[in-house]
From TrEMBL:
Family classification: Belongs to the class-V pyridoxal-phosphate-dependent aminotransferase family. Csd subfamily.
Domain Aminotransferase class V: 24-394
Coiled coil (residue ranges): none
Known role: Catalyzes the removal of elemental sulfur and selenium atoms from L-cysteine, L-cystine, L-selenocysteine, and L-selenocystine to produce L-alanine.
Enzyme Commission identifier(s): 2.8.1.7
Alphabetized UniProt keyword annotations: Pyridoxal phosphate, Transferase
Protein name, per record: Cysteine desulfurase
SUPFAM superfamilies recorded: PLP-dependent transferases
MF-aspect GO terms: cysteine desulfurase activity; pyridoxal phosphate binding
GO biological process, one term: cysteine metabolic process
Keyword Disulfide bond found: no
């Protein structure tokens, strides 16, 4: 049984006050809070078990290596990936996508080749491809969302041409909350021989993810949105794609031998993990995934679905509030503006006075803001520890903001 109050008790920060009000943390799309078990694991790793990993032969190094490498299997289970050697540790989704851009796309794409993107991609899934546009003449093709913020999978597939070499797509919009049917996109792209990279930063925290069922070639996640530490993350890469890649960074455990006139690489996934890694961050991510899987991703998704429906009803009752993204298949992420001259930053400041933490700005989605004709929005993004009572606090705070700016 999903007990939200019991879950809330696991997150110490949720018991604090901000500006004399109980904290209502609705900035989870930017970064989620951490349960005590993750905090304790990080403290223990530094206080009792810290050492560098892999090449040490002493007790602490062996212990740290075991704790660190065990996380690879946890990530594989979380994504339902049978072979943990297809999991590459990263500092987050941004590094994962850059690994694909530098290690795979730069090797396999040339001038005139095309990459298909949706207009609602995060900058982390845009900027690396612009590098290829600027440096190699790769062409970026954009697919728009409809008036509700939904993305038609067929529109993505229809954009495929003879020069299309990659589709890079989010599974869940960090602004609109739109859930994208990436499985259909992958199935259609596979028929045409086009690889697909899925940005799973937002989706993986809100719903069960089955990478083999999705059928993508690359799937990136980031730890800090998964109730884990910042500086942690991973990317799934199909072994066939790994064989087509060159290393992105050089040094440390990604080599087998180094000589004056020759270097030989380690086997994947180590081939793509250079330098001293984020040891403790990764261990913390493993604990966070254990915590989520212990609750059950289906249970988390069901709670958030109910929360999303409640919030939609309440927000729809504010006829002066403009919510961006009303697609039927939507996660509990709401971006909005208020009629009149109120800037998103001003709205956010008023909400903060009531203890409500939201994000304001473009949310690293410049092309989407251009598409919507906006300079920015406020965003309330919910997590498994949020409640309907907190939705009510948000509504009261928004009504105050409306009164002040009317």
């Amino acid at each position: 049984m999903f007990d939200v109050e019991k879950i809330r008790a696991d997150f110490p920060i949720l018991s604090r006050e901000v500006n004399g009000k109980p904290l209502v943390y609705l900035d989870n799309g930017a970064s989620a809070q951490k349960p005590q078990v993750v905090i304790d694991a990080i403290t223990k790793a530094y206080a009792e078990e810290y050492s560098n990993v892999h090449r040490g032969l002493h007790y602490l190094s062996n212990l740290a290596t075991e704790n660190y490498e065990n996380v690879r299997g946890k990530i594989a289970r979380f994504l339902n990936v049978p072979d943990e050697d297809e999991i590459v540790f990263t500092s987050g989704t941004t590094e994962g996508i850059n690994l694909v851009a530098y290690g795979w796309a730069m090797e396999n794409l040339q001038a005139g080749d095309e990459i298909i993107l949706s207009v609602m991609e995060h900058h982390a899934n845009i900027v690396p491809w612009h590098f290829l546009r600027e440096r190699q003449g790769v062409v970026l093709k954009w697919v728009d969302v409809d008036s509700t913020g939904a993305l038609d999978p067929q529109a993505v597939l229809d954009a495929i041409g003879s020069n299309t070499k990659l589709i890079a797509i989010t599974q869940l919009s960090n602004v609109l909350g739109t859930v994208v049917d990436v499985k259909s996109i992958c199935a259609g792209a596979r028929e045409k021989g086009v690889p697909v990279l899925v940005d799973g930063s937002q989706a993986a925290v809100h719903m069960p993810v089955d990478v083999p069922d999705i059928g993508c070639d690359f799937y990136a996640i980031t730890g800090h949105k998964l109730y884990g530490p910042s500086g942690s993350g991973a990317i799934f890469i199909k072994k066939e794609r790994m064989a087509e890649m060159r290393p992105f960074l050089g040094g440390g455990d990604m080599i087998r031998e180094v000589h004056k006139d020759e270097v030989t690489w380690n086997d994947p996934p180590m081939k793509f993990e250079a330098g001293t890694p984020g040891i403790v961050q990764t261990i913390g991510l493993g604990v966070a995934l254990d915590y989520m899987m212990g609750i059950g991703m289906e249970n988390i998704a069901a709670h958030e679905k109910e929360l999303c429906a409640y919030a939609r009803t309440k927000l729809d009752g504010l006829n002066w509030l403009n919510v961006q993204g009303t697609a039927p298949n939507k996660a509990a992420i709401f971006s909005f503006t208020i009629d009149g001259a109120a800037h998103a930053h001003d709205i956010s400041t008023i909400l903060d006075k009531k203890g409500v933490a939201v994000r304001a700005g473009q949310h690293c989605t410049g092309p989407l803001m251009d598409h919507l004709g906006l300079t920015g929005t406020c965003r309330a993004s919910f997590a498994m520890y949020n409640t309907k009572a907190e939705v009510d606090v948000l509504i009261d705070a928004l009504e105050l903001a409306h009164e002040l700016f009317s």
